[in-house]
Amino acid sequence: MFVQTTPDADALTTDGGIVHIRAVTPQDRGQLMELYRHASPESLRMRFFVAPGDHTIAAEVDRLCRPPVPAEYGAVLGEIAGQVVGVASYERAETRSGAEFAVFVADDHRHRGVGTLLLEHLSAAARAAGLTELTGDVLPANATMLRVAADLTGHTRSRFADGVLAVGLPTGITDDALGAADTRDRAAQRAALRPLLAPRSVAVVGAGRTPGGIGHETLRSLLRYGFTGAVYAVNPHATRVYGVPAYPTLSALPEPVDLAVFAVPAPAVVDAMRDAATAGVRAVVILTSGLGEGGAAGRDAQRELVDIARTHGIRVVGPNCIGLLNTDPAVRIAATFAPVLAPHGGLAVASQSGAVGIAMLEHATRSGCGVSTFVSLGNKADVSGNDLIAYWHDDPATRAVALYLESFGNPRRFARLVRRLARSKPVLAVKAGRSSAGARAGASHTAAAAAPDTAVDTLFAQAGVIRVETLGELIDTARLVTDQPLPEGNRLGIVGNAGGVNVLAADAADAAGLRVASLSEAVRTRLNMVLPPMAGDDNPLDLGAGASPTAFADAVRTVADSGEVDALVLVVAATRANNVPAVLNAVAPVLEAHPRITVAAVVLGMPHPPATMGNQHVPVYDLPERAVRAIGHAAWYANWLREPAGTALSCPVDATVGRLAVDTALATAPGWQPYEPTAKILRSYGIPLVPTVTASTGPEAVAAANEIGYPVVLKAGDPHLVHKSDVGGVQLNLTTAGQVRAAYRKVARGTGTARPTVLVQPMARGQVELVAGVVHDRLFGSLVMVGLGGVHTDLLADRALRLTPMTDLDAGRMWRSLRAAPLLTGYRGAPPVDTAAVEDLLSRLGRLAEDLPEVAELDLNPVLAGPDGLVVVDAKLRLAPVGAEPDGTLRQLRAPG
User: Fold this and answer.
1) How would you classify residue 82: left for phi > 0, otherwise alpha for psi between -120 and 50, otherwise beta?
2) pLDDT > 60? residue 740
3) pLDDT of 891 above 50
4) Residue extents of the structural domains in the chain
5) Which of 844, 875, 877, 849 is CA-nearest to residue 862?
6) CATH for the 4-171 domain, from 3.30.450.20, 2.60.40.10, 3.90.1150.10, 3.40.630.30
7) Strand partners, 13
8) CATH 3.40.50.261 corresponds to the domain 490-642
């Protein structure tokens, strides 16, 4: 049995079909009654503790079918092919922060993970409603339910009383819960995608008899590449195609096939999918275009074929793709019409674009970069990059992963899965869309800083993904990280016989984050002892155009033995006075004696240079910049691996008060919030605000100033103003009642309001002005920002961002990454700022952003930080309902329609 989450949807696959998880509706009453009526007496006793009568079951179904009120109760169900197979619900308890839960699964669908999935989704819904814990009474004999709770998190608590076990399940997203979910997901993907990537039999539907057609060429590719299983053609107008027996339909084949490849016109795809479902096909690759990308009719057809596939447990790649490749000698499947098939190796490739996929295969083949699997994703109607990441995590043939992405269907799931994958294998990505044309404008500083490509950079940096600029750079780096050890530091040695090229390599090193440091006196002395008189003796090391193989070997050995470099670039320029192959052969055994040094070679002037050098498969490049950039990416990734991963944030907050304040504001006046609800939300998360009194007239402002004590600040209270100072909306250092009255009049003139609402605050001072905030992205979730604040916010754009969920180490990494970080640690004799308070503020913002995704934009600017702590002087908050957006494995549920 296996369970898996399908991409970007509330649906999960078991070997009995796809389980769709959704909210219960009143229309489900009949099926829920049948669910309980067909249950065994023992199952009903485990649920109700007694043998229930019809009245008890009817009351339970009535309870489940009420319209949901998330703050009080909610229910979700799982269905396969329209049949309800399980249900889970919660009811808020008297504690107001917790709820009682119940789960019931049909007898013939137990032990398949359905209960775990239902409870996982129920927990997400409860968490979104502000509930911190689900509790339930379980009979000691109900081992299945106890195991379900234990599977979800290592923090499940239980106590025994009155003959039952009281089980408590925290709803918070813990590392244990995410780890358990990801482990289940990876095991599921391995099983679910096996018929796709390692099928035992394949049929090409639409395989024509004429060469040049997509179906014909795909069939030909399968046969010529040497697929190890059975191959069939489906063509109602032929008995044989390319020497293979042809059948009119999939249902007419002599056996069910694991994989069907569709190369039929778009109008015929839905019928072909129905035929596949009838024939028991387990996976489908749809090469056909003109569906999801082809207008309303095509989109409708794509939705229909996906519905058919999910009902029957069929995984689908495409449509509008070029197919897939698995070079494993035990499989050797080339279900693709791509003109070039890369050699066997350790790089797994996924491309959303077919043309880019062809280019990647061609570049990999030309450079000798071996591929384990290649999948063209096309429209991503079902199988996504996230599914492949989960599959490749435990694939022994894959040593590195390369991705070309044009969109993220579920960025939060991507971030979690790829972060775990990157801990064991390098992940490289080219993400299209760096141009400013895709950037959106924001009303707040935080929103403006978190433009879409910035969010992608933030996601990749947090997850350990090596983001490259071009396809060539991707292949260059992949060649290095699949076969070379990762650098243990950023010290680069350059040894070559072309001085000018050595200099170019050294220049490229600085941009790549590498350091070309001088060698020690002792190493230079040893070099002078073994090298010819005309050779150099420092890094970069120029051996001269006519350097012999022996000189190269001696120089490389001396530098490698020194312990003063972590990586090495070998530059060999061909001349009439040297022998490049002999040089490479002489250096290779020297490098084998230093297996921990990362090495790249650059060969110039040779008509057909080798792709690699020696038994260590040192990659050979044609330009020094390409080699150095590849090493730079590898060094960045190695440094990311060395950093501790961190754990989930833990800081005391009053999430219930914050949730109630957000729900109340959304129900009455969504959008930019006035001071009172803003302050209530921030204080519930322990964010320190300067004391503030609101006033609507000049006399009220004077009274507030008298209450607070002079000197005071008077600010415009209009939440829609971003740059208050620009319109005279901030009046500082007011020391008398007369100055306060005059300041109120200035604010009125500047804002064009006769009686503006103003905020009166004591003058607060700090050593450093910071800006901090939150912005919620429709795709990526919430980002937390910190930077240099005040008037410097937009001028210097010195900012750091992190996607939620943040770890306990992210806050410190954020402020340390600022260019202005020295201002916080005691610049030019100034006392250091309380950086622990800065980290605490960022951690609380991270927790707020995670708990309250309705916080669309939050600006804290300025935040005044000093040696004794910090205080938020001004806060702007915009609230907006969270739409139907993906949220990973632990995601909020959406009612149908």
Assistant:
1) left
2) yes
3) no
4) 4-171, 192-480, 490-642, 646-690+764-897, 691-763
5) 875
6) 3.40.630.30
7) 4, 18
8) yes
Please name the amino acid found at residue 278: T
| CB-based contacts of 524-528 (< 8 A; 24+ apart in sequence) | 526/558, 527/555, 527/558, 527/559
Instruction: Give the residue-averaged pLDDT of 335-348.
Output: 95
pLDDT of residue 769: 92
Q: Spell out the residues 6+ positions from residue 872 whose beta carbon is closer than 8 angstroms to its own.
A: 682, 687, 688, 689, 690, 841, 860, 863
Which pLDDT band, with edges at 50, 70 and 90, does 770 fall under? very high
Q: Which of 524, 522, 523, 505 is closest to 514 using CA atoms? A: 505
Q: Once rounded to an integer, what is the mean pLDDT over residues 120-127?
A: 85
Neighbouring residues of 552: CB distance < 8 A, sequence distance ≥ 6: 495, 497, 543, 570, 572, 583, 586, 587
Residue 426 predicted with pLDDT over 60: yes
Superfamily of domain 691-763: ATP-grasp fold, A domain (3.30.1490.20)
Axis-axis angle for helices 737-751, 698-708 (nearest 10): 130
CATH 3.40.50.720 correct for 192-480 = yes
Its pTM stands at 0.82
Question: Could you tell me how many residues make up the chain?
Answer: 897
Structure tokens at 322: 């070029």
pLDDT tens for 354-363 read 999 999 999 9
Closest CA to 875 of 892, 865, 860, 895: 860
- Strand 712-716 and strand 730-734: the pairing is antiparallel
Q: Give the C-alpha separation, 52 to 41, whole Å.
A: 9
For the chain, what is the mean pLDDT?
87
Note whether 7 and 318 are within 8 A (CB): no
Backbone angles phi, psi at 771, to 5 degrees: -120, 140
pLDDT of residue 892: 26
Q: Long-range CB contacts (< 8 A, 24+ apart) of 810-814?
A: 810/462, 810/646, 810/842, 810/846, 811/838, 811/839, 811/840, 811/841, 811/842, 811/843, 811/846, 812/839, 814/784, 814/786, 814/842
Task: Identify whether the C-beta of residue 148 lies closer than 8 Å to the C-beta of residue 122.
Answer: no
- Using CA of residue 134, residue 140, residue 145, residue 146, what is the dihedral sign? positive
